[in-house]
Amino acid sequence: MTVADRLLRMFTLLLGEGPPLRVRGWDGSMAGPPDAPVVDIRSRQAIRRLVHEPNQLGLGRAYVAGELDVEGDLYDVLDTLSVISGRQVGAVDKASLIKEATLLGAIGKEPAPPPEEIHLAGAKHSRDRDRAAISSHYDAGNEFYRLLLGPSMVYSCAYWAGPDSSLEEAQRDKLQLICRKLQLGPESRLLDVGCGWGSLALHAAREHGTRVVGVTLSVEQLELARARAAEAGLTDRVEFRLQDYRDVADGPFDAISSVGMAEHVGDEMYAEYCAHLYELLRPGGRLLNHQISRHPSHPPSNPSFIASFVFPDGDLAPIGTTVGLIEGAGFQVHDTESLREHYTTTLRAWSANLEAGWDRAVKLTSEGRARVWRLYMAACALSFRYGNIGVHQVLAVKLGPGGASGMPATRRAWLG
Question: How far apart are CA 191 and CA 255, in angstroms?
Fold first, then answer.
């Protein structure tokens, strides 16, 4: 039996009977259907990782370290293997796995995690730890994010109005959709929680004359956001701060936007997050919460590749749970819109940017970090496509006197 034959047996133990997979061993041997996706196992280190962590974390570590690779588009390979859309990696016959690894000479001490893996210290969701968690993800270099996201520098789901839209146009349309839902204008004061590189704040100020306070925990985001505001001549209308949302105390605001930020808040802190935003709004003010959700039938994986390499301490809740917590803080939810399919398209566009600029991305970060992003975006695009996760914009109101919401009668008022 060749190295590749034994490797294929190991992947059958990991992924289920008969995975549509062709394996290349470190000795050049091949096994599996000739027309199946090729997984290249480059070293015994990959097998040692899988023996100690026979799950998505073990596979992810081996991929990030370059000990395991695939031929072709990673998105297509993962789709074919059904790792995302169907089977769950993890429930394996450990004794049989160890037996195959022993015959391959791959038993030994667990290799150290790749340096791109994130390890945080301190109490979970303390201010210091939250700051470190945000920095670990967003302070990867503004030029790297510019390569990935394009000139819009918008790191959240775009809004694809038509099949011919560019990524830049789709992100502009998303920013405009948010501003219309919040009914922003020259008299409005907006708090943008988790403002990123300032794109929404700058759009609101430039296109609607809105006065904006944007807060972030990322030093690199803050520096670029301030530079962009100065370049656009908008420093009189936009203020960017390095500040925890819990420390914002200069309300009231007419509107609050939280776009791609609430996933970082954590299950333990979500009620406090909603209550604090409620207190910061004036009566009749609006909250637009744009947040990734998970389907109730797909509980979070433990251990998780994304928690270990991408979003430490992040949590995804079902949309029903999120709406309940927002209303529990006193808000009245007026509109919920799913943009799930839009996120699949957005991630594929970001992946195309990464592949087109691969060599530069590696120079700007590291090969391991670029591989983290390749795997993360491919896996997430499939999760959105199959409905395992979604993304929703929830528009909520802090009711005014007599229960007045100030909301228009129909959606046409903000979509037109």
Answer: 6
